[in-house]
Amino acid sequence: MRTILGCVLVGTMSMILVTTGCTVKATIKQITDTTSNITGTTFGQAWWNEDGQLKPDFKATAFVSLNQENLQQDLAAGRGEYLSSVSRLLGVPEEQQPVFFSTVQANYAETVGKDPAALLALLRDTSRPFLR
Predict the structure, then answer these.
(1) Where are the domains of the chain?
(2) Mean confidence (pLDDT) of the chain
(3) How many CB atoms lie within 10 A of CB 77?
(4) DSSP secondary structure letter of residue 94
(5) How far is CA 109 from the centre of its chain?
(6) What are the pLDDT digits (tens) for 97-117?
(7) 44: how many CB neighbours lie within 10 A of its CB?
(8) What phi-psi label fits residue 81: left (phi over 0), alpha (psi between -120 and 50 degrees) or beta?
(9) What global pTM score does this model have?
(10) Residue 34, SS3?
(11) In 10 A of CB 60, how many CB atoms?
């Protein structure tokens, strides 16, 4: 009886670990792939200052690269925390953000399928009329 219960317990724990491991592995792979894409394609050392902090010029680039999927959802909706954050990184004044949000939502079709660099370029172009 003790052996059977032990086997069932070990089997159940193994199943939980395997199931959890797949989720964690997939998440870690997504993070490392994105990080590798950023540092491998943009001369990563140029992004960081000597203190290991991200240089201000690259904050919007890093943000869009790491949050593209969530940002795309906010662009489609014309609102959201990711859209608010990227608008601040681009320098859009708070009082201009509602109009900026409407503008990027109206141009959402242009953002679909863009890589992070192209998406950021489009957002920068769209933000220019709203900058002081």
Answers:
(1) 2-41, 56-130
(2) 79
(3) 12
(4) G
(5) 19
(6) 999 999 999 999 999 999 999
(7) 13
(8) alpha
(9) 0.64
(10) helix
(11) 20
